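Exam revision sheet. Question 4 asks you to relate a sequence to its structure. Input first:
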Amino acid sequence: MDSEVKRVPSIVHVGADATLVRNAVDRSSMARGAGSVVSVGDDASAVTDLDSHPISVIVCEVESGVDRLDRIGRASPDRPCLAVVSDTSHVDAALDAGAADVFVRREDIDEETLLGRRIDALVDDCEDVASGPGSIDALIDAIDDSFYVLDTDGILRGWNRRFREVTGYTDAELKEMHAREFFTGDDRARIEAAIGDVIDSGSTVVEAELVAKDGTRTPIEYTGRLVVDADGTPRRIVGIGRDVTERRERSARLLRLRQATETITDNVPLALFEVGSEGTVLSMRGKTLSDRVQFSSASGDDIDDLFGDQPSIRDALRRGLDGEAVNRLIDLDGAIVELWLQPLLDESGAVDRVVGLALDVTEREERAKLLDQIQENAGEVIWMSTPGKESMDFITEAYADVWGRSPARLRGDPTSFVDAIHPDDRSRVEAALAEQRDTPDAYEETYRVVRPDGAVRWVHDRASGVYEDGELERIVGVASDITERKEREQELELKDRAIETAPIGIAIHDTMSATDPIVYANDEFLSLTGYDEAGLDGEQFSVLAGSGTDPERLETITSALDHDDGASSEIVLYRADGTPFWGRVDVAPVSGNESSPTHAVSFLQDITETKEHQQEIERHLTEFGSVLAEDLGVPLRNAQDQLRAAANGDEGVDIEGATRSIERAESLVEDLTEVHSFSVKSRTVSESIAQASEVSDGDDE
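Answer key, structure tokens:
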């Protein structure tokens, strides 16, 4: 080990004369010894030459300006600097220039002792920081609250990271801002008053809303303490600002809760009360008991006097005073009150008082009775369960009628209703029930239930969620027996299929509309007319008419539609492509639930082939008639001639020949009449004969 140990400097003096500083260090308790002081003269920048040494404090003499302090701050920003001034007017300037403390020289004080104490204080601070994990600034920045330093005028002189974050200003913008600049209105005046309070009393606490650079308002509680020098002169205000947003919100919630409790108690059928151990009322809020029992209570009233006419209440309170917790329903002349009593014990275990709550549950009990009636008499299966079907909380008696199983069994096994679902429907319903747990309002299923006796019932089941604070708590649903409706639907579907596949054209007309439009046409009607559904929808029957359509026959049809009458007609109609055809049309009105018809149905048959056959028969009959008439003409003329001769008295008349001619003619007429009966068109034989006679007479001439 070296015998000589070189003393390293811990106190650096900047100035003309280091005598005062050396003497002060000799009197100090932490930096004692002249060898611990190194003076660099007036050259403040020379401090950098000592940067590798463990400098504790720099003592700088300030005469007229703060240039030395500025240079020291640039040269050694991490070293605390103690400024020594002769004039108090230089104090603020020195502090603004970065001095950690300022010593004012005066003749009436022990300068060396007092200066030594100031140096000790700064050395002590340095050693505390050196023994920690980082610098003072790092420690202050680690504080979650806002840290600030103000001068006695309220100008901001220091701050930590949190302060900068809350205000939203940069370090450059924060420099020399006044504390009041962060506040507005009454808060600004409150902060200015708080600064005065700190200077007068040494500390203060104030709450105000800080307005950040972006306009954000944050409620903050500020604590401030005054920092003075050795002479007691105020130098700085340091403090902490704590965000009290959550505290304000908690206070506001508590206030709202208290107000809500008081409002509820004052406005709903509820009473809160306390009864002392001696049986006297300590407090009561709410009118449930006073309104129902018709009394006016005040603190100190005895329960025996208040409830003398209500032994059920008085006895319940006595049980509570004996240490028994009570919960019971009490009938007060038709009103139902639910009473809760809870005894509170003192340290010895004796009943100190009883707190009670009386709630008018008359409406609730009436609803419960109504619910029981619904459960017993509702025609629908009304149910309520937990989302996962762990429990079935409510089920009406109609479940037994539809499922053929008891509600008690379902309450014991909440998913047993699924076992009764028809096998062809079960997997679909189980999948829907799985989704029901998350989206109950979307659940709507129709399925078949097979009863134990083998009967099949159709059920339409739908559900809705019951939520509390946004959480699904229960699912309520209604399962309706729609068996009869399903049977009607199936019957209607059968009829629809019959109409749709009928081998005759069928169209339905809306006769409530002025134009009797077609609103439905089956496949055969579309096939006969050549139109598609869109082409006929909304059209009148006359859309099938054309140039060869008989107007009178068309009028027969349209008039029947207009007047809700029945009618039949054979008429020439036209397909969509213009092809004519003979159609037989029958119209019949259709009545709705009321007496007057709302629609009409028209039936259409293609009779073109029949008509053509008739016309062919008529043509052959006409030809046959002409031939027959010619055949009849000869015997008839012979008979006529013989009869005329007989009438004129001529001799040699062949009466028997005339008779045979007439008999021959009669036989031919009978044959013609029998053949003519097959003709649709009415045509008399006499007309054919007359026409043939006219032709024959013309030939004879």
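Marking note for examiners. Residues 136-243 form a domain with the Beta-Lactamase fold (CATH 3.30.450.20).
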